[in-house]
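User: Some background: our group keeps a shared notebook of sequences we're curious about, and every so often someone picks one and asks for a predicted structure to add to the entry. Today it's my turn. The entry only has the sequence so far, pasted here. Could you supply the structure so I can complete it?
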Amino acid sequence: MTDTQTDAPGKAGGASGSGGAGRVRRLLQGWSANLVQMVLGLTQQLLLIPAFLHVWSGDLLAAWLAIYAAGSLVVVADAGLQLRAINRFLAFKSCVDCDGRTANFYSALLRIYLAIVAVPGVLLCTAIYLAPPSAVLGFRQAPTFDAAMLVMTLGMLLTLPANLVSGLYRVRGRYGRTVWLQNGALLLGQIAQLAALATFGSLLAVAIAFVSMQLLFTIFLTVFDAPRLFPFLRRAGRPSFASPSLRWSVGQFGRALPFAVANITELALVNVPVLLVSALVTNRVAVAQWGLTRVIASLVRGLCLQVTLPLAAELGHDHAVGDKERLRRLYAHGSVFVTGLASLIVAGLLPFWPDFFALWTHGSIPYDAPMTVTLLLGSAAVAPSLLALGFANHSNRGDLLIRTKGLQLVVFLVLSFALIPQLGPLGAALAVVASDILVQFGLLALMVMRQTLHHPLRHIGFLLLMAFAIVASGWLIGLAITALVPGSGLTHFIVECAVWLIVVGTLASPLLSAALRARLRALVPA
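Assistant: Of course. Here's the predicted structure to add to the notebook entry:
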């Protein structure tokens, strides 16, 4: 393996092969890996639940969900350093000694990650000793809860250095590889959880099974795979015993702050509404309605975010090397792709979600149409801004991120406290959608488009027209199918979905023509 990647982003037409075929291959690899990762995430959170309930009581399952949620929140400890590293790696591409500067920065930042693991790790152990989570969270009757919580949170903290390595992979055109490796770890972790559940049946055993696979992934990626793929990492300019200065290290956290604010806001938009609705709404059925309906809206948003990640890496490369024309074309076409995908998914969910909701909840939770329509239409409307957010993260727009995402968090909280007491869960839906449209789309996305595209307003108009056409036609087709196809139950639902897919696939079949796709791409305002 040489230092030059045959498929890594580089100068167009150069040895690094950043031509159209290489870019398409990287994007397809990234999208396929992200899709599998989402499926594995759904398997962990949904399909493993029946297996847990076969062995555990409902109280033990609730304890495990609390432990899993705590482990998922450890990602906040990254504090935006991964995106800070990505932007520095991209900036080095225009330097003479790109590999050398990358190796030096990588080595210095890796030490900061090790400090993040060490210091908060000690504080975490102390906190769990002084204030046992079983007492704080009300799980005193759950055996090994405290030990499992410590294993989960400390173990996930130890995996943080993998963020730095995966950032380097993303910049060097190996994005798909790191996600596929993580997918393997997730799959092995799920198998190990089932084995631990069947053999030992304790929370601690399942937590160890989950964390151990993540730790093996981190060790393999950091110690073995990265130095093999990028030999220049072994040739860092500074001696191995040298440590970055305290001033430089603190400065990295300051420069990473905008990315941390952006990530925390995204996490808040997904998780905080659940807490606010639980606290401000007395009707427990309405709270359950919100929690279940929010799952599908979060899935649409998460899928769009996963689609934008490989695109953002390519856009960041073009921005770093100054290839404005290629950047403009990719941004315009990528924006259309993300918006079209979100609109198509929403068009399919709107007519059939009531039937699925009834099957999913066995009719025990009533369907809330206004809230569902608000969340799903909002998911389609915000899709173009998600690519703008990803590109801003990969083009070092720290000032823009901290202003817009900080403002979005404030707007969301103000609207939530104003609307939720009056409208219940519908108020939470309106707060989320309004903050997305007013701030993330109206400010962040518009500013990024104005700086990137020649005709930003025409492009936005094109996106709105396309989204309206896809959502309206798909929704109407679905309503016609539900009216014409008789029956009820699971079989009826599957038939409805199959007929919709056949009709929509037939209408979209002309897109299989390469000539037609080329003509449509030429119509996209850029």
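Suggested note for the entry: The longest helix spans residues 284-321. The radius of gyration is 24 Å.
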